[in-house]
Amino acid sequence: MKPLINRKDFPATQNSTYLNAASVALMHQGAANAVIEWQIDLRDYGTLHFDELAEEKIYDDLRLMAARLFHVQPEDIAVGSSATELLASLAWAVDVNPGSNIVSTEVVFPSTIYPWTRVVKDSRSEIRLAKGKDGYIQPDDVIALIDDQTKVVCLSHVEFGSGQRYDLKKFADAAHAVNALLIADATQSAGMLPIDVQDSGVDVLVCAAYKWLCGPFGVAVMYIAPELQSELYPGLLGWRSHADMWDLRANRLRLPDTAKRFEFSTLAYGSVIGLTQSIQYLLQVGIENIFAYTTDLASMLIKGLSERGIEIMSPQADDERTAIVAARFPGKGSAEVAGYLNANNVVVSQRGEYVRFSPHLYNEPDDISKTLELIDSMEINFEA
Questions:
Q1: Which of 260, 284, 308 is the last residue in one of the domains?
Q2: Which long-range CB contacts under 8 A does 198-201 form with residues at least 24 apart?
Q3: Are residues 203 and 81 in the same domain?
Q4: In this structure, are 45 and 191 located in the same domain?
Q5: Which of 79, 117, 140, 223 has its CA at 20 to 30 Å from residue 302's CA atom?
Q6: What is the mean pLDDT of the chain?
Q7: Domain range for 253
């Protein structure tokens, strides 16, 4: 395998063997520079450069890049401070009535389902969670929970623990059959695997910046299907919510007819510029290329771990796999293994009883070899 990119674009690769994109990816140099340069300009010039027009247009380039990433139109994209914030505002915008239900999984990342817990408490509805086995969810078990009272199916496109990938179209069809919405959290997929939102049938998609998109903290994006944009009344409102944001009067509120209606507040504007830069970089590399490359790295890791008697918990079927590799080390606790690897400069995450590895475009085959050699140095008979 030839390296996919020049590792100089990710200076932190010089400091460690970093296999932790599913937690926090290494930030692209151009993204970091953009954030810093904006802050310095604000320090030195205040609003002389970053004037009212610049503040009004600050999201335009990011909407364009996100639209290209998801194969939609810029007006379908809203920008916020975090995926959780955007999802919380959306949850209050959906008409959830007494006796209805929200469907998800018990292994979903908490922030994907927590916003709905407050909604169902207020509306006297319920949340239904499909049960998993060893972190794996049978897709049909999710669909079996959907009925005529389902309002929303809210899933992670890729489960954070195991890396299991869902066929969004299958869930969209099941949700739409009962007039429910499919809402997907793409935080663990966008930037690592191709996403065509229109082909998937998803109604709403949210995504944070600091994982596979190699961007900064403090910014996120949300896609909303065109037919929903004028129907949803955001749960969070602020001074940017009015269609003419500089018409600063408190006695009226007219929301934009696009996804922009979910943009309500001042946020870390430098992070917006940084995420724009990182998405542009990833698009230039090619998301299809990134997915092929990272899954090849994951295959190398899976082969090496399996040869050492280490149990692979991530799905390996072509239609479910990703670059996330969750492994269970027989006879050894996940905290001890992850701690040993991290202490020796191979950066991974512990997630429950698993050690989670997540290589990205800046990794190379040598990183996998180093990781396996370090595991060998633990001198554990994993088959015992």
A1: 284
A2: 198/71, 198/72, 199/71, 199/169, 200/168, 200/169, 200/172, 201/168, 201/169, 201/172, 201/173, 201/176
A3: yes
A4: yes
A5: 140
A6: 96
A7: 30-284
Q: Are 278 and 361 in contact (CB under 8 A)?
A: no
Query: What distance, in Å, lies between the first and last C-alpha atoms of the chain?
Result: 34
Express each pLDDT in 25-67 by its tens digit: 999 999 999 999 999 999 999 999 999 999 999 999 999 999 9
Q: For residue 82, give the amino acid letter.
A: S
Q: In angstroms, how far apart are the furthest CA atoms of the chain?
A: 72
Quick one: residue 242, left, alpha or beta (phi over 0 = left, psi -120 to 50 = alpha)? beta
272 and 307 both lie in a single domain = no
The candidate with the shortest Cα–Cα distance to 178, out of 139, 149, 200, is: 149
Q: Answer yes or no: do 279 and 296 share one domain.
A: no
Do 259 and 210 lie in one domain? The reply is yes
Cα angle 70-348-19, degrees, rounded to a multiple of 5: 50
Across residues 225-253, what is the average pLDDT? Answer: 96
Q: What is the pLDDT of residue 226?
A: 97
- Give residue-wise pLDDT tens across range 191-234: 999 999 999 999 999 999 999 999 999 999 999 999 999 999 99
Average the pLDDT over 140-160 and give the result. Answer: 98
Residue 305 in contact with residue 378, Cβ under 8 Å?
no
Establish if 327 belongs to a structural domain: yes
Ranges assigned E (strand) in 219-329: 220-224, 311-312, 325-328
Residue 52 belongs to some domain of the structure: yes
**Of 20, 27, 22, 23, whose CA–CA distance to 348 is shortest?**
20
In DSSP terms, which residues pair with 311 in a beta bridge?
A: 328
Count of CB atoms situated within 10 Å of the CB of 382: 17
Instruction: Look at 381 and 47; give whichever has higher pLDDT.
Output: 47
CA angle 214, 219, 222 (to 5 degrees): 100
| Domain co-membership, 114 together with 204 | yes
> Residue 196 and residue 180: Cα distance in Å, rounded?
20
- Segment 299-312 mean pLDDT: 97
Do 171 and 259 share a structural domain? yes
Bridge partners of 152, per DSSP, are 102, 181
Distance (Å, whole) CA 327 – CA 303:
12
Does 66 reside within a domain? yes
